[in-house]
Amino acid sequence: MKYILKFSLLLCFCLAACEFTPDGRHYEEVDPTVVVSGNIDLNLAADTVFIQGNVSLKYNVALPGKTLVSTRLLLGERLLKESHLHVDGFNFISTNYSNGTYQLKLEATANSGTGSLADVMGAEGIVVQKTWVLIIHNGPPPAVPVTNIFERDGQLVIQWEKYKLPNFREYRLLKEGGGGSKSIVITNQNTTEWIDSSYVGNLKFYILTVVDQSNKESPDPQRRSFNASVPAIINAYYNDDTTISISYSTTKFRNNLNQYKIRRDADYQTDLVTSSDPLNTVAVVPFNGFGAETEYHLITEPKPGALYTGYEQRSFKVQYGWAFKSYKDFHYGKSANAYYGVVDNKVVMRDGASLNIQRQKEFTTNYLTASLRLAVSPDGKQIYATRYPYIWQLDPATLEVLHTYAISYITGEASSDVSSFTVSNNGRLAIQERRSYYTYYYIYDFQSSKLLLKQQTNNSSEEAGISQDGNVFYHSERLHVYNGANWEVLYSPVRKDHIAYHPSEPWVIVFEDQTTSVYSTTNGTKLTEFSTSLPLSDIMIDPATGYLGGHSHEFYHLYDLSSGKQIRKIKIIEQSSISLLNNRLFSNDRYLPLQ
Amino acid sequence: MNKTIILATGFLLIFGAAVRAQAPAEIRLGAGYGSYSMGDLEALQENSMQGIGVNIKATERFPAYFNYSLRYLFKSKVDDHFGVVAEMGSTGGRIGYADYSGSYREDQLLRYRRIGVVVESYRALPKGFDGWLGCEASLLFSKLIYEGEISLTGAGSTSEHYTFYALGGAVQPYLALERKIGFIRLGAQAGVCLSLSEGFSLKEDRNIKLVNPGKSSEEVVPGWSGWRLSMYVGVPLSAGSGRKEN
Predict the structure, then answer these.
(1) Is ipTM > 0.85 here?
(2) Which chain A residues touch B if contact means CB-CB below 8 Å?
(3) Which of A323, A395, B90, B219 is most buried per CB count within 10 Å?
(4) What is the rounded CA–CA span in Å between residue A166 and residue A214?
(5) Which of B19, B52, B96 sits opposite A120 (nearest CB)?
(6) Identical fold at A140-320 and A345-461?
(7) Domains of chain B
(8) B195 with B224: CB under 8 angstroms?
(9) What CATH homologous superfamily does A345-461 map to?
(10) Model confidence over A301-326: pLDDT tens digits?
């Protein structure tokens, strides 16, 4: 029994192992080849798209025979939208992105369409995509750089990079510098060059901006400069007393040239010369004359054009003669063949031929405001300097002080600053002193140590002066002659610049209109009389040569007194103060040798 | 496995009672072949095939299959037999598909365990044959093991495994013809199984029923009804016979 039970149980387990097991396999031959034909459309016109502001993107994915799984719209790596629809859209807010170039990608995933299990299960699929280049630009249009500015065919060419973004309205080219600014507008986006037909030189700035359809203008334009030399006067030289030749450089922008004009300060509105010849470089212009510098202006006038900002001008100062800064109390002393003058508190001695400085001597007193005056006798042997309260006699050759006197010792009374100070060859010193209400005149003879004259008048503006022999003295529009005891009026009235003392002869010369009279300084008799072609003023006799000079209007005339003939006529500037010393004409800052 | 233990326990209890009755007759070990009518499960297969989208085919559709039985019989005073019967059988279904991209498979493994009582009446036949006319009434324990697997090339595979149970009852009238060969009896038996069952429910939660979504979510019921043919070997349990058996 026990065995039967065991057997039965064993049988149960054995039979359980013989249970049904499902079997069978069904394999299908499926062609794994995937054929894709379809289309992805986005409402963007081109492969490269410019985006500004908000744009509604609409897309359409057509994949015939395929089941769309999803569409993904990506900007770079960033997912903009995922959808399961064939037709969908996205409102693209471009202001959320910085300006720049992006790749926009529309990606569609669909089943493979092979009909395989993996296809049916969605594990086997296709991904189709299309990309666009997206240029986001919000805000004002960026400026385009000016790439080149150069001369071509005698004109100035400005070139720039083409503005590549859409919504273009115009280029604005602004020219600045010198005579203001001018701008032009170019509406053709493809234009990348402009010819400035009004550039003839000088530093100019060109600024190019872009204006878009919304009238926004580039905020950060590049400022490109161009500089070429402006035609200028290179030099000027005298042809004669009345004309000078001016040579000037030319502009290489010859086709932009309208004309050159030369003007001068004296009559600025008048064109002395005009020339439209781009090759001519010399012009002959009138000369202002000796005595002051003349400034000439070369004006380069460009042709009119859209970028005309006026003419260019370069100036050039012309001076006749040699540079020399003249002195106060400027004299020539024949004995030492030297010029003497005063500058500040110094007496300066210069060589008569070379004008080189030979000696300088400073005179100081306790009266710092008192001015230094110098008197040199026509023969150059007597030299006195004065600075309140002293008078010094100097050695003409060395400027050493020979004697020192107090002014009050000379005049015999308390005196003040000397306003005029002359000395004769024989040592008669004439002193003019201006005080509050009167002017005092003294003549002191050093040979006899006597005061020969002491007079007082109402204030007079003109300086007094004594003749070479000390016998004739001018003051207060009167010539006085000394008769050995008294001073008698010789000639009256006469202006200071109408009289001249001969430096060696005992003559005093008086000019009255065109008549020149020569009087003896010894007794006051008229020796001779001759007439000049023009009335002369500011006359002076050169202590070195004895020639008489004076000017009338715009000429300086030089006469030989011995013959009474004019030997030289020099163009001068009216009103200029001229000294004739040792055969040289001196103006304030030039001198002109007469030989 | 639990059902198997219950089956075995029940068998042993009845076996023990019979031993105490002191009228044992014989033990029959049988092996048979039977058909089934798994309409619900075939419909479920059909529904699965339609839902995938590829040309899935059923390679097994719950065919007729072997069953195994054990009977413990007692002899009554009028030479009739009564006793207990335990039987197990199985069938199954498979739908599947494969192509270059992968494979798809759903297997349904169906089992039953039956335990019940048997009554048979003796009919003497000429030429040394014995005949039996009998009927069995059983409790029917059904089990459905569902296995699904999808394998995609390059994407790995995934599988599912569920077990469902159903309880029912079966009645099986039959005819048997046997002849004594030596001390054993060799018999052939033909019958019809008529079964009724509840729908399958999930092993872990009896409230979760297996339904056919393609068929108005009707419950899926096992259909074990069908013809039965079997052969058996009977071992007499009389003292003399018992000794011969040993």
Answers:
(1) no
(2) 1, 3-5, 8-9, 11-12, 15-16, 18-30, 32, 114-121, 123-124
(3) B90
(4) 12
(5) B52
(6) no
(7) 2-245 (2.40.160)
(8) yes
(9) YVTN repeat-like/Quinoprotein amine dehydrogenase (2.130.10.10)
(10) 999 999 998 899 999 988 778 888 88
